[in-house]
Design brief:
binds uracil; 4 helices; two-stranded antiparallel ribbon; binds 1-O-pyrophosphono-5-O-phosphono-alpha-D-ribofuranose; globular; 5-stranded parallel β-sheet; single chain; 9 strands
Length: 173
């Protein structure tokens, strides 16, 4: 699955800032007056925070942690990543979940469980910077700024430099 997208060319060249601009465009087109943003810790939380500002939305974006519902909790245990913080009533909310990378879909399954611990949203949608394929669960993004086929031996994570500019870090597993 490889779809040419802004910021993606050749084997693997990802311009995270170009992808962010594409994500901003996509999320803007998805917004309704009742949409609430919630980013998945940690990469998705930075994204949601920046989108919240760039879209001129009031208050902080929500943060969702996958930690308590991960299916590999027994191996990983509690990590130091951010805790869930949802500055809105989840009951009846239209939640737009943000993440940097969608891979197996296991993180999304875990954060949906986390979200539903806080209430019963009216709707939940998902927007990501990169869908790298490799799904192990029936999960899909409503919007992906790029779709690339990445070898299982590589991992991709969003990072920020000191001035807040996004970069992708590609690591060999
Ligand atoms: O679809 P999946 O196979 O679950 O993978 C995608 C998740 O993996 C990465 O998070 P990671 O757990 O590495 O944490 P991080 O955001 O703190 O880097 C990424 O940020 C996604 O949240
Ligand atoms: O629940 C989860 C989330 C991400 N990755 C996993 O292996 N399990």
């Amino acid at each position: 699955m490889t779809t040419p997208s802004p910021g993606v060319s050749g084997s693997l060249v990802l311009d995270a800032e170009a992808l962010y601009r594409e994500l901003l465009r996509g999320v803007r087109s998805m917004l309704t007056p009742t949409t609430r943003l919630a980013g998945i810790a940690s990469g998705g939380a930075w994204l949601a925070e920046r989108l919240q500002k760039d879209l001129g939305l009031e208050g902080p974006a929500g943060v969702l942690s996958s930690v308590m519902h991960r299916d590999d909790f027994a191996q990983r245990g509690l990590s130091a990543s951010a805790q869930t913080a949802l500055p809105f009533d989840v009951n009846g909310a239209d939640v737009l979940v943000l993440d940097d990378v969608l891979y197996t879909g296991r993180t999304i399954r875990a954060v949906l469980n986390e979200l539903f611990d806080y209430g019963r949203p009216a709707s939940v949608r998902l927007a990501v910077l990169v869908d790298r394929g490799g799904r192990e669960l029936p999960v899909q993004a409503d919007f992906a700024a790029a779709r690339v086929a990445l070898p299982a031996a590589q991992s991709l994570a969003l990072a920020r430099d000191d001035s807040g500019i996004f970069q992708f870090q590609v690591k060999e597993a």
